[in-house]
Amino acid sequence: MPNIDFRKKISLARPRPYGSNLQRALESDRGRIINSAPIRRLQQKTQVFPLERNSAVRSRLTHSMEVQQVGRFIVHSIYDRLSDSEKDAYGLSSLERAVESLVEIACLMHDMGNPPFGHCGEDAINRWFTKHLKELAPMQQLLTGLSSETTDPIIHELCHFDGNAQAIRLVQSLHRFNLTYSQAASVLKYTRPATERTDQVPADKNYLTKKVGYYITENSYVNSLMDELEMAKYCRHPLSYIMEAADDISYCLADLEDAVEKRILSLETLTEHLKRTFAELEPDNRPIKGRHCFDRLLDNVYQDAQNDEISPNHKFFIKLRVEMVHPLVNHASEQFTNNLEAVFNGELNRALIEDNSQFHALAKTFKQVAINHVFNDPEVENLELQGYKIIGGLLEEYRPLLDLDTDTFQKIVRGEGRKLPVERRLFNKLSRKHVAAYEIALKEEAPVTNPTLWEFYLRCRLLQDYISGMTDQFAFDEYKTLLVSD
Ligand SMILES: Nc1nc(=O)c2ncn([C@H]3C[C@H](O)[C@@H](CO)O3)c2[nH]1
Ligand SMILES: O=P(O)(O)OP(=O)(O)OP(=O)(O)O
Ligand SMILES: [Mg+2]
């Protein structure tokens, strides 16, 4: 009998403990997240289409609500799969409400740290830092005085901004939500500290560490969380697999629905692309567990939609979602229970639905069609180029703050920057919350021995916090305001 007890992974423990009732503790987590500004900001952040004005097209917020629904569905499906004696044996019997709440809120939070303009926003921040970090005056000084062993991990981290790591930072350092460790751990999707490179982690954890998981500023928090929930190094919390599967299942259909809504694809061409792509991935085209084969299923959905007098597009996606979400959710829950020990220990080195099955081929088909026929649409790519320009341009405007030496920057922080008119005004535009996090981190024990390096690192983080916290629209407006003469 494997040693699985979910009560070790789902508990009341949090950084500043209070209360003794698990359900109430999780309600408090829900309240904090649902009522938070970073969640509200998701309504003006890109899912696929930057600066989208059509509100029927998904934003990060509406996407996250859909992920929440799929996450709930997977939890119910997992519970339906387990017998009472299995639930007892795994410590899950009295935890259904808790698991449901943790997963729902993890799904709602999962993109909270994403910058404006989606993936290209992340990339734009990293491009700017990769290109300019070593040119910045304090960094040039540090590079002459310190060994590369000391500076390399910090440089690596600052050139790898990641939305997932930023979500952990928002929860702990910027908003101090004091969530239960279980709730925070459910969104910890990658487990590699940003100071480590991918070639420094064990090969059997390469999927779990393929992206940056958390920054050095949250290192001690993540260590406490992992100790508390008995998570081994580079391993995940079991519920994060459900959040990840819910995201994968949700967006693969939603992105295509949005593409049809925006008239990038017609239902005819979409159906053709889906059939052709699936045939390449799964040539034998078997029936999908208890249903027709994919081609037949698509033809039926298409025909039904044509008979709808009001909205064939809407009907098509309702039917397709019914046909696809059930098998994919069932598959995710089956993978969860079939691999329960590896999932419990957080060492399953892949996503739940990525197992080379026909379900995996289905999800891949949808994603592939989006990559080949939606993300490269000229309108989308033009907007993304604007996104690069806006983020790169904003970082360039704020660069004077990063060129100052520590003492001069500290003067501005203390309000003594009268002789630095531009820098002082730029500093005044930063969010007070972000500046407070910078000041608190400076007062606490530094995880980096050189104080100048630590201060400069925190200043770069401060700018990344500010830029990544912006919505698409705010970033665009700021860019127009600051680059008024261009
Ligand atoms: N516009 C755009 N360009 C891309 O290259 C791209 N790659 C992924 N995505 C969307 C798909 C999921 O909704 C979500 C998560 O992958 O982000 C993209 N969107
Ligand atoms: O939704 P995103 O943009 O975060 O994209 P993802 O496919 O969920 O990727 P990641 O693994 O970086 O969260
Ligand atoms: Mg994500």
Textual characterization of the structure:
The chain has 486 residues and is mostly helical. The chain has a domain at 6-115 and 161-238: Hypothetical protein af1432 (Orthogonal Bundle), CATH 1.10.3210.10. The protein has 23 helices and two strands. The chain has helices at 22-34, 37-41, 60-81, 84-89, 96-109, 118-132, 137-145, 148-158, 163-174, 181-185, 219-228, 238-261, 267-281, 294-306, 312-338, 340-344, 358-373, 378-403, 406-413, 421-429, 432-443, 451-469, 472-482; strands at residues 192-193, 212-214. The protein has a two-stranded parallel sheet with strand order 1-2. Helix 5 packs across helix 12. The model has no long low-confidence stretch (mean pLDDT 96).
Number of continuous helical runs: 23
CATH-defined superfamily of the domain at 6-115 and 161-238: Hypothetical protein af1432
Kindly state the mean pLDDT as a whole number? Answer: 96
According to CATH, the fold-level topology of the domain at 6-115 and 161-238 is Hypothetical protein af1432
Please outline the major beta sheet: 2 strands, parallel
Helix vs. strand class: mainly alpha
- The percent range for strand residues is under 5%
Strand tally is: 2
Uncertain parts: none
Helix content: 55-70%
Features:
mainly alpha, two-stranded parallel ribbon, binds 2'-deoxy-guanosine, binds magnesium ion, EC 3.1.5.1
Short description:
It comes from Grimontia kaedaensis. With 486 residues, the chain is mostly helical. It contains 23 helices and two strands.
